[in-house]
Design brief:
Helix content of chain A: 25-40%
CATH class of the largest domain in chain B: Alpha Beta
CATH class of the largest domain in chain A: Alpha Beta
CATH topology of the largest domain in chain A: D-amino Acid Aminotransferase, Chain A, domain 1
Number of strands of chain A: 18
Number of helices of chain B: 10
Number of helices of chain A: 13
Strand content of chain B: 15-25%
Largest interface: A-B, 70 and 60 residues
Number of domains of chain B: 2
Distance between the termini of chain B: 25 Å
Strand content of chain A: 15-25%
CATH topology of the largest domain in chain B: Rossmann fold
Strand order of the largest sheet of chain B: 3-4-2-1-5-6-7
Largest sheet of chain B: 7 strands, mixed
CATH superfamily of the largest domain in chain B: Succinyl-CoA synthetase domains
Radius of gyration of chain B: 19 Å
Shape of chain B: globular
Structural class of chain B: alpha/beta
Oligomer: heterodimer
Largest sheet of chain A: 6 strands, antiparallel
Radius of gyration of chain A: 26 Å
Shape of chain A: elongated
Distance between the termini of chain A: 41 Å
Order of helices and strands of chain B: EHEEEHEHEHEEEEHEHEHEHHH
CATH architecture of the largest domain in chain A: 2-Layer Sandwich
């Protein structure tokens, strides 16, 4: 789950990381009031779950409350990478201006199986280019899960970055705070870009990004409350509520599969035979008839779908349960869309028997199923 | 021969009385797996009946190990209790832990893996289908009826996709030494390289099938390892060529992973190491048959 910048920064602040004063506005009037309270010199920033806001025009400087209102007016409702902006953050400018931009992040290094602190004195919007062209400017330190961040580690980073020595103590406090924030909120990423040295010679986190591990949400009620579904497609919200892993795509062949690896492979094989999947859908292990019916309704709610491919290799999931779910769904949803069904593994024969009356195309192998679905979807395009 | 599990396996199941746990324990016992104990806190002293046997239930894994000599632990408990069970199994003295549970918090797994490494205990999983040594033992979900004993070692990140491949091999008359589902979680206990080492050392394994998927760089690392250390032929498949890239937050992912982690990157790394990569999972068994001179 991704957090908005303002949510991430409030969590940073709760762990002692200094952030600018500011607040969230949903209307230009809110922005006026907040900017006036902050003295007029502010930055107005789109709050969407996407990077590249600055380059898309979603970040504007203002030097009066009226300018802040105008900036908010422009940004609210704007589309950034397909996401609509519903709120903006109005922040004071860094006190005394910005002397230097630093990059600082805590993330999970899968290969080393450790949290990793990553930092660079060359922070800012071009950090990815810096990483590619001058990887030596990116400093990486791994954290032992039982030791946490030690002072020698933040000192090492500070020294390698050439950070002025008088800022080392504050830098240690920020690194420790960011790591504590990462750990307390089960983050997979906390990123500050930029962490600035202000004109007054202090460190401050001007921007913040956080991604939370979805597996941990059961113990993070304060994070669940922050969920903003306004930029999430309705079908994906419904799927999540039903415990189904669903991602909408642009093609015309709806897919229902058990297991993420097999679901991805089914999409790959459809593509291999010249078709295009309309979605990724994993019904999970041990799905019962009702879940299968919900999944099918989701797939059929997409008007682009010209054919549906059902590929189930039963292990925990049983073929007869899947077949019952298909029949249930078809009783509730009237559709002309043709189906290709391939059931293998546990209770596959029983499942196929249940479907025998439903006049569906059946297939023995995945290749066979994919070829048939591609042919049916093309037929649908011509009508 | 085989790797990790066989007739000598003495299994203790944590979560034996749960809905999933009891169903799969029954399946494992019917397959002939030596299930010596179950663990459910609060139910110590009771018995789990299946396949004509009475399996004693204990409150803790430590008691189960003391009383029955269990050497392998399988964990099939809800996610919020699973990490505790991993620590408990490691402390109880088993040499292999198989954790099937999915949705375990990643930071919990980082700490657990560090603890297991220090203890020298091997974990397979979490979020995995487990292991199957055809004709000997099954620890986990892999359906026993699709497999048969033979010379191919199978290692995979995926669950159902692995069943597909095992089934196709068996239908071509090619059996398996052991099938290992390592799981696709970001932090797991046993990786491709660990299993490749075991298959390389196993006298009966003649051919290895490796099934990877997008994310992380375990496949890229395995490719380098195979080139340097594996003398047996390896055939591979990578799932997720058409998966859409996730909407990336921040820059960290791009800085760390660069272009690795994609299906293209993994396939290129494997081919670079001289490993055939099937375009379609239906082709894997055919390629193996061909390379074994059975086609």
């Amino acid at each position: 789950m991704n957090l908005h910048e303002f949510q991430a920064k409030r969590l940073f602040a709760a762990h002692g990381v200094p952030i600018p004063r500011g607040d969230v506005a949903r209307t230009p009037e809110d922005a006026t009031r907040i900017a006036a309270d902050l003295g007029g010199h502010v930055v107005v920033k789109a709050q969407v779950h996407s990077g590249g806001r600055g380059k898309a025009g979603g970040v504007k400087l203002a030097h009066s409350a009226a300018e802040a209102a105008a900036a908010a007016q422009q940004i609210l409702g704007m589309q950034i990478r397909g996401l609509t902006v519903h709120q903006v953050l109005v922040d004071e400018l860094a006190p005394g201006g910005i002397a230097q931009e630093i990059y600082l992040a805590v993330l999970i290094d899968r290969a080393r199986r450790r949290p990793m602190i990553m930092a660079s004195a060359a922070g800012g919007m071009d950090i990815e280019q810096v990483a590619e062209e001058s990887p030596e400017k990116i400093i990486k330190v791994h954290v032992d899960p039982f030791l946490g961040v030690r002072a020698y580690q933040s000192n090492f980073i500070a020294a390698r970055m050439g950070l002025p020595r008088e800022l080392w103590a504050q830098f240690h406090q920020i690194v420790t705070g960011l790591y504590a924030c990462f750990k307390a909120n089960d983050a997979s990423l906390t990123e500050v870009n930029p962490l600035v040295i202000t004109g007054e010679g202090k460190l401050m986190a001007l921007d913040g990004k956080m991604t939370i591990d979805d597996n941990s949400l059961f113990r993070l009620p304060h994070i669940v409350e922050m969920r903003d579904t306004s930029d999430e497609p309705e079908a994906e919200q419904k799927a999540r509520a039903a415990g189904i892993n669903f991602i909408k795509l642009d093609g015309n062949i709806g897919c229902m599969v058990n297991g993420a690896g097999l679901a991805m492979t089914t999409m790959d094989v459809i593509k291999l035979y010249g078709g295009a999947p309309a979605n990724f859908l994993d019904i999970g292990g041990g799905a019962k008839a009702e879940q299968v019916a919900t999944a099918l309704r989701l797939i059929l709610s997409d008007a682009n779908v010209q054919a549906v491919l059902i590929n189930i290799f039963g292990g925990i999931t049983r073929g007869d349960e899947v077949a019952k779910g298909i029949i249930t769904a078809l009783e509730q949803v009237q559709t002309e869309v043709p189906f290709v069904v391939r059931l293998a593994g546990t209770n596959a024969a029983e499942g196929m028997a249940i479907l025998a009356d439903a006049k569906m195309t059946t297939a023995v192998t995945l290749s066979d199923a994919a070829q048939k679905a591609v042919a049916l979807a093309k037929g649908g395009n011509n009508s | 021969m085989s790797i990790l599990i066989d007739k000598q396996t003495r299994l203790v199941v944590s979560g034996i009385t749960g809905r999933e746990g009891s169903f799969h324990t029954t399946q494992m016992m019917a397959y002939g797996t030596n299930v010596v104990a179950g663990v459910t806190p609060g139910k110590g002293g009771q018995f789990f009946a299946a396949a004509g046997q009475q399996v004693p239930i204990f409150d803790t894994i430590a008691e189960a190990v003391l009383e029955t000599g269990a050497n392998t632990s399988m964990i099939i408990v809800p996610a919020r209790f699973a990490v505790e069970a991993i620590y408990e199994a490691a402390d109880a003295g088993v040499s292999l832990i198989v954790c099937l549970t999915e949705y375990i918090p990643v930071l919990d797994m980082i700490a657990a893996r560090a603890y297991l490494d220090a203890k020298g205990v091997r974990l397979v999983g979490p979020n995995c289908p487990g292991l199957l040594t055809p004709g000997q033992a099954k620890v986990g979900f892999i359906p026993g009826n699709i497999a048969m004993p033979g010379p191919v070692g199978v290692v995979s990140k995926s669950g159902t996709l692995t069943y597909e491949v095992i089934d196709a091999l068996t239908r071509l008359g090619i059996g398996q030494t052991t099938c290992v589902g390592i799981g696709g979680d970001p932090i797991n206990g046993t990786d491709f390289i660990d299993v490749l080492k075991l298959f390389e050392a196993d006298a009966e394994t003649e051919h290895i099938v490796m099934i990877g998927e997008i994310g992380g760089n375990a496949e890229e690392q395995a490719a380098v390892f195979i080139k340097q250390h594996v003398s047996k032929p390896v055939t591979a498949f990578i799932a997720g060529r058409t998966a859409p890239p996730g909407r990336r937050m921040g820059h960290a992912g791009a800085i760390v992973e660069g272009k690795s982690g994609t299906a293209e990157g993994k396939i290129a790394a494997l081919r670079e190491a001289g490993i055939p990569v099937a375009e379609n999972p239906d082709d894997i068994a055919r390629i193996v048959a061909q390379r074994m001179g059975k086609a």
